[in-house]
Amino acid sequence: MPAKLAIYPGSFDPVTNGHIDIIVRGLKIFDRIVVGILNNPGKNPLFTVNERKEMLQASLKTFTRVEIDTFDGLLVDYALHRGAQAILRGMRAVSDFEYEFQMALMNRKLVREAETVFLMPALSWVYLSSTIVKDVAVNGGDITGLVPPLVQEAVVNRVDR
Ligand code: ADP
């Protein structure tokens, strides 16, 4: 059987324990996962794409079946280019549903074979997002246990300036 590859796309600004939870679950289904960081300067990110890539690489260095990459443009074009069987996305709550549903159906309209697989994180990560981590840190709150320690240090240093 050919190896099953999933693309896990997102901003990862920065990676959180919720993202890692989805990757760990995804590895039970897929042989390999490529984390695709979308290069989208319009989003006014806290970290550059390269910084995000380095944090993901450091946080996932023991995961031999995970690769970190970056991409521009349409996700389906990137997924085709990488030869992926599926797009992996996390589904936290009903609030994620409408956007994710729209994206998955549009991707399938663009490329008929584009399948999206949604995985639910552990309950502890359901309320977690990169945005809330940044908001808490900017206001001096403690983000321990929400992101890998090296990410915590980078976030605290960045918002401290
Ligand atoms: P995007 O800008 O594409 O939403 P994110 O980095 O915010 O990029 O999220 C990437 C993917 O990870 C999305 O599918 C999102 O739903 C999922 N995700 C983000 N945070 C969590 C979390 N705490 N638990 C599970 N999935 C999550």
SSE inventory with pairings:
Layout (H helix, E strand, L loop, with lengths): L4 E6 L6 H10 L5 E7 L10 H11 L6 E6 L3 H8 L3 E5 L3 H17 L5 E4 L10 H9 L10 H11 L2
Parallel strand pairs: 1-2, 1-4, 2-3, 4-5
The structure holds adenosine-5'-diphosphate.
Textual characterization of the structure:
41% of the residues lie in helices and 17% in strands. The chain is of the alpha/beta class and 161 residues long. Strands 3-2-1-4-5 form a five-stranded parallel sheet, sandwiched between helices. The radius of gyration is 15 Å and the shape is globular. The termini are far apart. Adenosine-5'-diphosphate is lined by residues 10-12, 16, 18-19, 22, 89-90, 92, 96, 121, 125, 128-130.
Q: Which hetero ligands occur in this complex?
A: adenosine-5'-diphosphate
Q: Order of strands side by side in the largest beta sheet? A: 3-2-1-4-5
N-to-C order of helices and strands: EHEHEHEHEHH
Give the proportion of residues in helices: 40-55%
In total, how many beta strands?
5
Rg, please? 15 Å
Structural class: alpha/beta
Query: Taking all residues together, what is the mean pLDDT?
Result: 95
Task: Give the N-terminus to C-terminus distance in angstroms.
Answer: 51 Å
Oligomeric description of these chains: single chain
The shape, in one word, is: globular
| Main sheet makeup | 5 strands, parallel
Strand-residue fraction? 15-25%
Number of helices: 6
The low-pLDDT segments are none
